[in-house]
Task: inverse folding
């Protein structure tokens, strides 16, 4: 987990770990292909699968939430999944992503808000029902259904 957080922070980790989290694509980077955002993305993805709450401090949470503002859309998308999976306090950042230029990011933000959002977020997600991309509209509808159900359950 520490190595995944380190990758997410943009640090270089061992070739063995990079190959473990990045697979064959990581070999290309080790052979000289441009690094771009891939190691950070692999670090975020690893945190979907490996987790120890006792090892997560406020700095680690801040680092994970910062993925939602990354210039790389794939990292913003993965950051939304990570926020939802790990219950990160990132609802304001997720609401901002509902208007992202990339449809996959908008869909991921809507999906994350179905887990993390409150009744205050229903209107923001509802706006995506008119999105030009059908996959975003579908994600918004699923998110609204889940969010409404969760809000109604909490009101009982």
Result:
């Amino acid at each position: 987990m520490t190595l995944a957080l380190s990758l997410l922070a943009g640090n270089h980790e061992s070739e063995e770990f990079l190959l473990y989290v990045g697979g064959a694509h990581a070999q290309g980077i080790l052979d000289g292909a441009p690094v771009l955002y891939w190691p950070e993305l692999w670090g975020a993805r690893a945190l979907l699968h490996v987790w120890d709450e006792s090892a997560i401090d406020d700095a680690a949470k801040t680092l994970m939430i910062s993925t939602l503002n990354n210039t790389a859309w794939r990292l913003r998308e993965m950051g939304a999944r990570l926020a939802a999976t790990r219950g990160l306090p990132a609802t304001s950042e997720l609401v901002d992503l509902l208007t992202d230029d990339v449809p996959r990011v908008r869909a991921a933000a809507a999906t994350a808000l179905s887990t993390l959002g409150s009744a205050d977020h229903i209107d923001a997600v509802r706006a995506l029902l008119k999105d030009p991309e059908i996959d975003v509209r579908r994600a918004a509808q699923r998110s609204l259904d889940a969010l409404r159900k969760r809000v109604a359950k909490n009101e009982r």
About this structure: The chain has two domains: 1-56, 71-156. The domain at 71-156 is CATH 1.25.10.10 (Leucine-rich Repeat Variant). The first helix runs from residue 2 to 8. The chain has nine helices and no strands.
